Amino acid sequence: MDFSYENQGANTYLVYEIKEGDSIDTLSLGMLTNNSIPGLTRALFTQMDEKRYIKYNVSMQQFFGGVVNRKRLLGVFSGITEGFLSAEDYMIDTSSIVLDPEYIFADVTTCAAALICLPIANAEGTEPDLGAFFKS
Fold it and tell me: What is the pTM of this model?
């Protein structure tokens, strides 16, 4: 996946540029932009000229970027589980959740995790294997 980072004042955004052949899951995108879903990062859809972007406010710290203690690890595991359960509650296809350690963000103070959901119907992702992820 081709993500980039963008800084706007005090906010940091993870940005995905929608490619010409990408098919957007409009239901999932609408849910992500209009709701605060536990465990998932809120999305912002923007367009400049012909280019379309999905941006995620990720001012939190990357989870695997620092020291991981038991409290933080359990908090993040709980957040990941909550994100998947919440996605199902909001009719979001769980195969669109990016379960890559590089794109899992955690609030250092609360140890809560936030996952990225990329609502692109033709993304290369398949249904994430939570068991294998937690084991690794």
Answer: 0.83
